[in-house]
Amino acid sequence: NPTTFSATQAAWNALDKNDPTLSLGIRAETITGFTPGSGADADKLVYLSGAADVTFQRFITFQQGLGGWDYSQAPVSNSVIEIDAGFAASQPDLTLGSDPRALDKVASLLARMSSLKSFNDQGGDKYYVIVYADQTATSDAWLYAATATENDGFDFVDNVSAVPDTDTLELIGIFKSIGASGFAASNFV
Hints:
Elements: H1 5-14, E1 29-31, E2 48-49, E3 52-53, E4 59-62, E5 79-83, H2 85-89, H3 103-116, E6 125-132, E7 141-148, E8 168-175
Helix pairs in contact: 1-3
């Protein structure tokens, strides 16, 4: 990562998103018909780290009204962090819009989340992150794989010269018409 967040954003924006030779962290699967929630008919996602499945740890919702999460349930590696649709909507300066491929905007949301309620990643902790397109019952959900390094949450900035800060963010799935805050812990195994 560059030494400032704006430089990281500029690097992402400078890439040609139409270049088929680049993954850019935005080549995702589109999933329709996924049943979220905790009911008996709910669909499941296997939590992966690379090509291997790992033990899913926690499902944590970062909520606007509660100022984040309870530290007793703070994210640990291999957790799912759900960004409550209300929190995303309460950050109008980030203008997420309807483009799940705008990694700079999603990274801004994660950096804001980290600054409001920081967590101590263990340097290389991996997470799935869920962001909702809007607050409606037909909202799309975007699933990202993210890595926080250097024990500083999601800042996407290399600010300690001794250890490179290589926070990452990759769009891996677009779930169509799933509904705001539709996912539940039981959707992950």
